[in-house]
Amino acid sequence: xxxxxxxxxxxxxxxxxxxxxxxxxxxxxxxxxxxxxxxxxxxxxxxxxxxxxxxxxxxxxxxxxxxxxxxxxxxxxxxxxxxxxxxxxxxxxxxxxxxxxxxxxxxxxxxxx
Length: 113
Description:
mainly alpha; DUF4817
């Protein structure tokens, strides 16, 4: 994996859907609040390498405990515009065209001076 791709990969990772988060919270409470049991029970659904990590399960359940909802709660302040569909498409196209791009040149595609 190239260095540039390893830096950009977190931006391409999809968030968990509402249904997936509900499933995680349900399993959490069905298994007497055991994160390890939830992690094990998600293996048939997601496979051994694509399932949420234990820390992700903790974050989702803590968010549910705090807000009592699995929906994303809108944050206050200015909305983030860096992770838009257009920017992700531009990055994907740029990396596909030239894998030897440097990070500054790739960043220049998204936010030209």
